[in-house]
Structure formats: structure tokens, C-alpha cells
Amino acid sequence: MSALTDGAEDSGARGDELEALAAIFGADFELLPFEMGAVARVAIALESETAKAALEARLPRGYPSQVKPEFAVKALAGVSEALRRQLTETAAAAAARTPAGAP
């Protein structure tokens, strides 16, 4: 099995994606500190009158050409653990349906 590479094309695509997300979500978008094996990690705040959560995306080395992003929902207020798990599973399932490298 070959090691994942992270070329200029992946880096450029990620940069474009992060720039677009920042423009779309404004103050609700946050670039988080890096984790081991990740080249980017972001959070998007999701808030309603009764609940507040954050969708976190971890972009591993080799994203987007070789691997898919990893998602987690963080419950901040008014979101049950069951709903948080369901939202995380829904985000993961959506990512799983899209092949790595797909536009």
C-alpha cells in the first residue's frame, strides 16, 4: 500500500474549498488547529432558536484526490446525544457516497 501524497493540486483544491466555505458561512466558519495526519480542520456553526451545534470536517492528507473528508457533529446546546450521533452518521454517509477525487 502506498503512502498518501499531498501534491500541489490537492493543496490548491483545498485552498479554493476553504476560501469558498469562508465566503459562504462568514463568521460561522472557523479554521481549527491541525490534528495529526490532517492538513486542514474546519468547523461550521449551526444555530437555531433552540439548538446550537458545529459541523467539523477533518481533511486528511491526500484530500480531495485520494481520500474523503471525515465529519463529526459537536453538540453545543439543545442537541441530544442521539441527535448528534444521527447527524454525524448522516454526514459520514453523504461523504461515503461521493468517490474520492470527485468534483
Q: What descriptors fit this protein?
A:
103 residues; alpha+beta; Ubiquitin Conjugating Enzyme; four-stranded antiparallel sheet; 4 strands; 29% strand; UBQ-conjugating_enzyme/RWD; RWD_dom; RWD domain-containing protein
Walk across the major sheet and give the strand order: 1-2-3-4
CATH topology: Ubiquitin Conjugating Enzyme
* Assigned CATH class: Alpha Beta
Biggest beta sheet attributes: 4 strands, antiparallel
Q: Mind telling me the C-alpha Rg?
A: 14 Å
Number of helices: 2
Mean pLDDT: 83
CATH architecture: Roll
- Measured by DSSP, the beta-strand proportion falls in 25-35%
Helix content: 25-40%
Through-space gap between termini = 25 Å
Low-confidence stretches: none
The helix-strand sequence is: HEEEEH
The global form is globular
What is the total tally of β strands?
4
CATH homologous superfamily?
Ubiquitin Conjugating Enzyme
What structural class do you assign from the helix and strand content?
A: alpha+beta
Number of spatially distinct domains: 1
